[in-house]
Design goal:
This protein is mostly helical. It contains twelve helices and no strands. The longest helix is centred in the N-terminal third of the chain and has 42 residues.
Length: 255
């Protein structure tokens, strides 16, 4: 771009933008800097106009610096979180460190499930909070209860609170028991022949529920390990009652 091209272009720029070019000559071609200075001279700005342009320039540069700082904070948090995950997954660790890492993994698993469920239920949540016809009855409270349980248990588990262990174990045992009932139901489920009904209520492979049972049954087993229970001061009686409540709740709901 020659000087004439710069001259034509810079006639369209605001004064504060021209000041950017003049104040940072190393970032631009010499012809561009010369053209910017020439355009500023041609505008014959008063001291007040020049001061106003400098204020706008300073505010914009501050906003840019603030945004860069925010991005750096986010980047540092991401790096810190990545380091935490890498540390948790490090196979070389002593027993105390292993217990701590298992707790962190369980907590992250719960929070991850919460975020996944929240993503799935965004539409329903928007409907419940914005539609005048939506009613918060007991059934809807039960419907959204897993979101509360997952977020609360994940947070309290991370903070080493006893209630975190209780809520997490209840959820794991409840889900594992529910998977057993759904598996038995799926074995007897057949297509109705009604396209609309079969689309709304598709037949699910029983193996899906087998996988669910293995995952959440395994998580329940991990929660019963002595090294985990000791952190949360959970005795065997409390452990058995909690697991039993999770399984019984499934039966009560399905009756």
């Amino acid at each position: 771009m020659n000087k004439n091209n710069f001259t034509e272009l810079y006639q369209t720029l605001t004064t504060d933008r021209l000041l950017d070019i003049v104040d940072n000559p190393s970032d631009y071609q010499s012809l561009a800097v010369e053209a910017a200075r020439h355009e500023l001279d041609n505008r014959q700005l008063t001291a007040e106009q020049l001061e106003t342009a400098k204020t706008i320039q300073a505010d914009r540069q501050k906003a840019k610096a603030d945004k860069q700082q925010q991005m750096k904070v986010i980047e540092d948090k991401i790096k810190s979180f990545g380091s935490l995950i890498a540390d948790i997954l490090n196979p070389i660790q002593n027993e105390a460190s292993t217990t701590d890492k298992h707790i962190k993994l369980i907590s992250l698993f719960l929070v991850g499930l919460f975020l996944y469920q929240l993503y799935r239920e965004v539409g329903m949540l928007q409907f419940m909070f914005t539609d005048s016809s939506a009613e918060w009855d007991f059934s809807m409270v039960l419907y959204f209860l897993p979101l509360f349980v997952l977020s609360t248990s994940g947070t309290l588990m991370w903070l080493r609170k006893k209630h975190g262990w209780t809520l997490a174990t209840l959820f794991f045992s409840y889900t594992a028991a529910g998977a057993v009932l759904l598996f038995l139901s799926a074995l007897n489920r057949q297509l109705t022949g009604n396209t609309a009904l079969d689309t709304i209520f598709p037949v699910v492979s029983p193996m899906i529920y087998v996988g669910t049972f293995l995952l959440f049954g395994g998580m329940t087993w991990v929660m019963t390990k002595q090294n985990i229970r000791e952190v949360y001061n959970i005795d065997k009686r409390t452990m058995l009652i909690t697991i039993g409540l999770g399984a019984v709740t499934v039966l009560l709901i399905t009756m």
